[in-house]
Amino acid sequence: MENILEVHNVTKKYRSKHALRGVSFNLNAGKITGLLGSNGSGKSTLMKIIAGLTQPTSGRVSIIGGAVGIDSKAVVSFMPDKPLTESWMNVKDALKFQSDFYPDFDQTKASRMLEFMKLRAQDKVKDLSKGMNERLQLTLALSRRASLYLLDEPIGGVDPVARTKILNALVEFYEEDSTILLSTHLVSDIERIFDDVIFIKEGEIVMHTAVEDIRLRQGKSIDELFREVYAEC
Ligand SMILES: Nc1ncnc2c1ncn2[C@@H]1O[C@H](COP(=O)(O)OP(=O)(O)OP(=O)(O)O)[C@@H](O)[C@H]1O
């Protein structure tokens, strides 16, 4: 199977602090992979490096065989943990902004997602609740016809009902052949959607495996294993 993403020995230091230490992994096309780790384990830093928003201190990332840059940004859709939209925008402006910027923006899919998310075109972004804002950010990210989606904490900080809505949207609007890397520390709510999981701890990958393997061979849920691995964090 083709590797969409290859991460080779990536290290990131913020002054003397290591956020990532020698991180290496590959992602195949057509899978949803959970990037799981407790607060401060390096998830956002890794996402930003893959998205091309920050440089690694050392190591290399390749996306569909090419280096991170203008070409990779055209095929990677990134939902950051902090909203990209401006407060003066309404929902329609935010969609227009995204479609002006990215030629792969699918207006039909965006309209379907808005309806599913119960977002209205005229709603002001600054007046949206946190959960509604996350729905908007996910709509913006998933409405692109990208090869790789990077979703950084798409369910962080919202209540369980809102989480379920966002997860249902992910399942509903996921295209079978696309690849998603989704970071979270809220494992129990979301583990049903993962094919594979990567556990990151203190900037190092401690496990990268198929969910089925954990469930069948180890007889555990991902949440149980997560609690074991991060017990002392
Ligand atoms: N711009 C920065 N300058 C200095 N240190 C940083 C910076 N960004 C992140 N760090 C540090 O790097 C480490 C990893 O942070 P990162 O945000 O990648 O973790 P995370 O797993 O996404 O955390 P969370 O789940 O809390 O969002 C943390 O110790 C953090 O304090």
UniProtKB/TrEMBL annotation:
Q: Give the EC number.
A: 3.6.3.-
Q: Which PROSITE patterns match?
A: ABC_TRANSPORTER_2
Pfam families, per database record: ABC_tran (PF00005)
* Stretches assigned to the ABC transporter domain: 5-227
Question: Which InterPro entries did the record assign?
Answer: AAA+_ATPase, ABC_transporter-like_ATP-bd, P-loop_NTPase
**Presence of keyword Metal-binding:** no
Keywords, ordered alphabetically = ATP-binding, Hydrolase, Nucleotide-binding
Tell me which CDD domains the record gives: ABC_DR_subfamily_A (cd03230)
The yes or no answer to whether the keyword ATP-binding is present is yes
Signal sequence region: none
Q: Name one GO molecular function term.
A: hydrolase activity
SUPFAM superfamilies membership: P-loop containing nucleoside triphosphate hydrolases
Name of the featured protein: ABC transporter ATP-binding protein YxlF
Organism name: Paenibacillus pseudetheri
